[in-house]
Amino acid sequence: MSSVSVLSTTSFRTATRPQNYIHLIARSYSGVTIANLRSSRGLNTNTSQWNYTSKRPITSTPQNQIKEYFPPPQTPGVKEVKSAWVHPVYNEDQMKNVAIAHREANNWSDWVALGMVRVFRWGMDFTTGYKHPEPGENLPERFRMTEKKWMNRFVFLETVAGVPGMVGGMLRHLRSLRRMKRDNGWIETLLEEAFNERMHLLTFLKLAEPGWFMRLMVLGAQGVFFNGFFVSYLISPRICHRFVGYLEEEAVITYTRAIEELEAGKLPEWESLEAPQIAVQYWQMPEGQRTMKDLLMYIRADEAKHREVNHTLGNLVQASDPNPYQTAYQNPVREHPSKGIENLKGTGWERKEIF
User: Fold this and answer.
1) What's the topology of domain 92-354?
2) Which residues define the annotated binding site?
3) Domain residues of the chain, as ranges?
C-alpha cells in the first residue's frame, strides 16, 4: 500500500485483524507518516516511520473505530473525575538512582516466595517471548526485543501486578469488619498500590491495543492468580508480601533493561515518542521530561517502591504492627519509610529500623 499521510487532529490506529498480541498505535496531532501497511497483518514495524509531534490535546485518544477503554465522562455537567490518590512527585535524580536489588532468602517462607516468583517469571517469559541475557551473552534473533514485544510484556505484567494489592486490601478490610478492630493503616497502602499498577496499564493502553490472544491470556492469568493469591493470603500474608517483593524485583529488572535498550538506540520508534496525557497528569511530569524514556523511569520507580513496601510489610508482625507508610513518627529527624523514593531501600526496611 502506498504511504498514508494523516493531517492534523487525526489519529491513526492499526487494528485490522487480531493476528498479533497487540496492535501498536501511531498517534500525532499535527502529522503522521506511515509506510507499508498490510491489510491482513496490521503494521509492518520493520519499515514504518512514525513522526510524533509535541502538540497534544486534552484527551489523547479520540473515539473513532476502536473502542475507547476509559473514555472521558459524558455525563452532563461533569468535567473531570478526580483521583482519590495523588501520586508523590519524583525528581530526575531520584529516578536515576533506582537500582536493581535482591533480598536474600533467609528462611523457608522466603524460599517458598522466591520459588513461586521464579516459576511465575518462567511462565511470563515463555508467554511474552522474553529471555534475559547473561553478561556478555548474545541472544538469538527470536529473543530480540522490539517495541511491540516490550509492550506485550508490559501490558501482561501490569494486568497481573494490580491483583495482589487489591486482594490483600480486600481481605484485610473484611478481617477488620469481621473482628471489629482497626487495621492500622494497611488497607490504604495496599489499595493504593493496586490503583498505581492499574494506572500503569491504562497508560500503556494509550499506546497499544490488546488483541484477542492477549485478552485471553490476561483473562486466564487473572482468574488463576486472583484465586491463588486469595487463598495464599488467607494462609500466610507474610509469604504473600515477600512474594510480591520478589515479583517487583523482577519488574525493576524488566524496566531497567527496556530503558537501557532505548538508550542504546535499539528501540528507535520510542526515541521521539511522547508520554500520553494521562501519564503527564498522573505523575505530574514536568516540561521537557515527557518522553517514553521518562515514562519508563517513572514506572520503574513505582515498581521499586512496591518492592520496598512489600519487603517491608513482610518483615512486620502482620496482625498488630501499624503500617509504617501511614504512620506519623515521634522523631521526624530519624529516617523512616515514606511514600516517596527519597530514602528508597531495595530490600525493604527491617522492623527494628522502624519501631
Assistant:
1) Ferritin (1.20.1260)
2) 158, 197, 200, 248, 303, 306
3) 4-43, 92-354
